Protein: NUDIX hydrolase
Amino acid sequence: MTIKDTPEEWEIRATETPFVGNKTSVRTDDVVMPDGTVVRRDYQVHPGSVAVLALDEADRVLVLRQYRHPVRHKLWEIPAGLLDVPGENPLHAAQRELYEEAHVKAEDWRVLTDVYTTPGGCDEAVRIFLARDLSEAEGERFAVEEEEADMELDRVPVEDLVRSVLAGELHNNCLVVGVLSLVAARSGDGLDALRPAQAPWPARPFEV
Structure:
């Protein structure tokens, strides 16, 4: 048997959107279960995100430390951001985030992995890219604000990040999934066997 997620949509008898925020909203659906009963499901509607595991020539990952109010923590993360425009090309969004958050550009881009962050309560889909052949971006640095104004930037060896992840010291979803996926890819077919940067993404279709 092939282990593979498959698309499926159960019947929805009614739907409403009780809350609409700046970036996301909350939707309530009345969903028909396999036994015919109807159950109400509340979930966050999210535009989707991209994240970038930027790996330099010294085998270090570019990481950011940022305050996250919902969990009351400063978390070490990899550059990431929302797909602000419907149908936006995720590679272009990832390149933008790497520039804005770290003032870095990369010549080699691959898809590392695609994930649903919290499928039981949110429809957010994230594409995590691997970016290599890094260099300083040209031009002025992007003007940061709000939480990003307090952001710290560092480069940490892959092995140190893995150790901290397994010790329960790092918790950001994209960092954890990205770093462990990197290690798994290396031990498998190698990084050059990863999907190309413009690989299809059914969760958030886009035009090349």
